[in-house]
C-alpha cells in the first residue's frame, strides 16, 4: 500500500503526463489489462482516460484495472485514472 506522501509524490509526477490508454463503451477487457500491465512494467506510472461513452462508473473501471493488473490506484481525477505499479526490471521511480 502507498502512503499519503507517496501518493502525493506520484500525483505530482502524473500531473504532466498524457493518458496512454482510453476506456470506451466496452469497458475494461482482458486485452486492455494485458497491454496496461506491459505499459506499467515499462513506465511504472500511467494515466488512463475514460471516454464519455463508457457505460461503467469510473470507480468500477478503476477497480477493474487495479484488480486485473495488481497496480495501486493513485487517484481518479475527472475522467482520468492514475495507476502505479513498481517495475521488476525497469525501476525508475524512487518513492519517498
From TrEMBL:
Record organism: Paraliobacillus quinghaiensis
SUPFAM superfamilies in the record: YhbY-like
GO molecular function: RNA binding
Pfam families associated with the record: CRS1_YhbY (PF01985)
Domain spans labelled CRM: 1-96
Keyword tags: RNA-binding
Top-rank taxon: Bacteria
Name recorded for this polypeptide: RNA-binding protein YqeI
Listed SMART domains: CRS1_YhbY
Gene3D superfamilies in alphabetical order: YhbY-like (3.30.110.60)
Amino acid at each position: 500500500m502507498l502512503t499519503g506522501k507517496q501518493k502525493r509524490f506520484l500525483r505530482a509526477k502524473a500531473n504532466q503526463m498524457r493518458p496512454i490508454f482510453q476506456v470506451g463503451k466496452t469497458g475494461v477487457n482482458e486485452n486492455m489489462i494485458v497491454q496496461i500491465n506491459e505499459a506499467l512494467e515499462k513506465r511504472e506510472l500511467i494515466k488512463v482516460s475514460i471516454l464519455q461513452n463508457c457505460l461503467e462508473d469510473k470507480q468500477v473501471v478503476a477497480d477493474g484495472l487495479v484488480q486485473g493488473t495488481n497496480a495501486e490506484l493513485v487517484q481518479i481525477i475527472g475522467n482520468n485514472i492514475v495507476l502505479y505499479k513498481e517495475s521488476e526490471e525497469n525501476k525508475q521511480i524512487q518513492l519517498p
